[in-house]
Design a protein that fits this description.
Lambda Exonuclease, Chain A, 2 domains, disordered C terminus
Length: about 350
C-alpha cells in the first residue's frame, strides 16, 4: 500500500470518529432511539451499542459518499440564496436560511420520551415555513422510497413540529446515485400525528432496549445480509450449517458472481466510452470486420398495477394473469465473519 493511500485511510478513520462525535454531541445515542434507527431493526440498534461493529476502510469510503452529497446539496442551497445558520441561531433567524451540511446539524429531542434526531438539512423560507431534506446515496435509486427512509423523515418532521408548532412543515427524501449521475426526490411528506405516534413508539422501544429494560425486536429487512449481528438473530433462526461439499459450491458461486460483476462493470464502462463518440442517438458504423449499432429506445407507457387494482378492481381481475414463481439462489459472504477476521488480523 502506498504512503498516500495509507495517509488517506488514516484520515478517513479520524474523520469518521469526528463525525460520530458530532452526532453524539447533541444527545447520547447509546440511550436514545434515533430517527435513523427507528426505520430499521431494534435488535441491530441495541447490539450496535453493546457490540459496536468494525468498519473496514472500504466501508468507510462508501460512507463518505453520503458526506460528499451533503456538501453538494449545501452548495446548491447557498448559490440559491439560502444563508447557513448555526443550530442555536435557527429559531430567531429569518429565511431564507438553513442548518445542516458540513458541520453541525439541527438536533432535536422529544420533551418527554428518549427519542431524538439529527436533520441533514432544516430549511427556513421567507414566510417562516420549514422544509426538511433527508439526503441518501445509493447504488441504483429505488422506484419507491424504502420504508426506513420514510419513517426516519416522519420522525424528523414530528420532532420539528413539536419545536415549531406554528410553522407549516414539509419534507423530502433526496436520493442520488453518484456513479450514474441520477437523482430523484421523494416528496409530499408533512406532519402526520398518527404516523408520528407510530414512529415514536418504535423509538421508545429502541431506547428501552438500549437501557436493558426489554428485549429488542428483530425486524428483517433488505439489508440483513450486511448486518454484523446476523448470527444468532431470531429472525434468521432457520439457517442450517452447511456440509463442506456444499460450502465449496457456495464459495464457487460467490467467486463467479464477483467475476460477473467485474465484467458487467467493465462492459458498462466500454459502452459509455462508445456513447461518448456516438451520442445518445441511433447510430450505425463499420470498420473492417466490426460494426457498431446504437439504438435509442423512446420512452413508453406502462400500467400502474396498484392504482388499477385500487380504482378499477373489476378490470384488474379481467386483465391480470398468474405469474409463475421461481426459485432464487443467493450466495454471499457474511459481513460479521469478515469483520471478525479483520479484527483478529489487526
Amino acid at each position: 500500500m502506498s504512503r498516500l493511500i495509507q495517509f488517506n485511510a488514516a484520515a478517513r478513520a479520524k474523520l469518521a470518529e469526528l463525525h460520530s462525535a458530532a452526532l453524539n454531541a447533541s444527545f447520547d445515542r447509546t440511550k436514545y432511539g434515533s430517527a435513523s434507527e427507528i426505520g430499521g431493526c431494534a435488535r441491530k440498534a441495541t447490539l450496535n451499542v453493546t457490540n459496536p461493529p468494525f468498519f473496514t476502510d472500504k466501508q468507510q469510503m462508501v460512507f463518505e459518499r453520503g458526506h460528499v452529497f451533503e456538501t453538494v446539496v449545501e452548495g446548491y442551497l447557498q448559490v440559491q440564496g439560502f444563508t447557513k445558520i448555526a443550530p442555536e441561531g435557527f429559531p430567531a433567524a429569518k429565511g431564507p436560511c438553513y442548518v445542516g451540511g458540513a458541520g453541525k446539524q439541527l438536533s432535536l429531542i422529544h420533551p418527554e420520551y428518549p427519542v431524538g434526531c439529527n436533520i441533514d438539512f432544516a430549511v427556513k423560507h421567507k414566510d417562516g415555513n420549514l422544509f426538511v431534506i433527508e439526503t441518501k446515496t445509493t447504488d441504483g435509486i429505488p422506484d419507491e422510497p424504502y420504508g426506513s427512509w420514510v419513517e426516519q423523515l416522519h420522525t424528523q418532521i414530528g420532532l420539528l413540529h413539536l419545536a415549531y408548532p406554528e410553522a407549516e412543515i414539509r419534507g423530502s427524501i433526496l436520493a442520488r446515485d453518484l456513479n450514474k449521475g441520477m437523482e430523484r426526490e421523494f416528496n409530499g411528506y408533512s406532519y402526520n400525528e398518527q404516523l408520528f405516534e407510530y414512529v415514536l413508539g418504535k423509538g421508545v422501544h429502541i431506547a428501552l432496549a438500549k437501557h436493558g429494560e426489554i428485549r429488542p425486536s428483530a425486524t428483517p429487512g433488505p439489508l440483513c445480509g450486511f448486518c454484523d449481528h446476523r448470527k444468532g438473530c431470531p429472525a434468521h433462526q432457520g439457517a442450517q450449517p452447511l456440509p463442506h461439499e456444499v460450502t465449496t459450491h457456495v464459495e464457487k458461486l460467490i467467486a463467479l458472481n464477483e467475476q460477473k460483476k467485474r465484467i458487467e462493470t467493465e462492459l458498462e464502462q466500454v459502452k459509455n466510452e462508445l456513447l461518448y463518440y456516438t451520442g445518445e442517438r441511433s447510430f450505425r458504423g463499420e470498420a473492417e470486420e466490426v460494426a457498431l449499432v446504437v439504438t435509442k429506445v423512446e420512452d413508453s407507457m406502462t400500467v400502474d398495477g396498484p392504482k388499477l387494482k385500487k380504482e378499477y378492481p373489476d378490470i384488474y381481475g379481467e386483465v391480470t394473469k398468474k405469474k409463475s414463481g421461481f426459485v432464487k439462489v443467493e450466495a454471499k459472504r457474511l459481513p460479521s465473519s469478515a469483520s471478525a477476521a479483520l479484527q483478529k488480523a489487526a
